[in-house]
Specification:
D-lactate dehydrogenase (NAD+) activity, 342 residues, NAD, NAD(P)-bd_dom_sf, NAD binding, Rossmann fold, D-isomer_2_OHA_DH_cat_dom, 15% strand
Length: 342
Amino acid sequence: MFDLVKITAYGVRALEEPYFDRLNQDQFTCKYVRELLTHDNVAAAKGSDAVLVRGNCIVDRQNLQRFADWGIRAVFTRSVGYNHLDLQAAADLGITLARVPGYSPTAVAELALTLGMAQFRHVSLAVDQTRQANFTVSANLFSREIHTATVGILGAGRIGLAEAKLYQGLGARVLAYDPRPSATAQATVTVVPLSELLAQSDIVSVHVPYFPGENDNLIDTEFLAQMKPGAVLVNTARGELADVPAILNALGTGQLSGYGTDVFRDEVALLGKQFATLDEVPNAEARQLMAAYPKVLVTPHVGSYTEPALVDMIRISYANFHDFFTTGTTSNAIRVAASKTN
């Protein structure tokens, strides 16, 4: 039955193909496209029954209209976030959208901890010095130990709590802020007001969802001014949450001692591309962040790039397709009403 269902999956790396093949228990007929979905390669999906995308694919009204014209009625993302999907356009065109509600929370949590600890222990500065044949042990490499420090987790969901437990395992005192903390969060960490968390934390790690038009530039001058002087900031959530000029200024004044980020604004212009020089990077904010190394550590949105997380994303995506082509819907569908004019 399902072998007649054709799925085009965009943004599938060569390393990921064996996982897609192994986890394809329903024997869907899958076509893998290396590149992220753009206006230029949308035609690769022609003749398919469904499309699978990932973060930073362009799933706007133009591409959705093309899918609808070709009879595609299911466009699913293998990510938790869905800011790249035009929900209203999909509803207007009768296309069902669905997502992966969660994957291994340890994946992003481990990277966030790694970035935080690298800055807390001045690892990036030390590595930068030795790369320049400088083996002096300077005062700016002197560090506290994490078991004497306080870590603040902004966003006490599954990922935030996973990182909290990692830090607790190292002996750190962990605080968390969440506007609607779960019972699990309250049982796991000390939940405090945001102002208290910022004032007391030696490392602040951000794990909040991005809501366009609501929390853009959440990490701004006012936010940074409330932080403990010399603290470390980590953002593995969304680039749109960060006011980069404000962060760079805080690094310059010493209000921040280090910043680690796995996310950028306008990532689609960067990810999956190799540039000859830093000057050729089209994203000005990304250039500024990378130029601030070693005070800034930048990774190319690899927080979820682990085997357990990948398996979860693929397995749940296939389950979403199974449900859709069996019942016409899926429990992980993203709901929005069609426009009244349509």
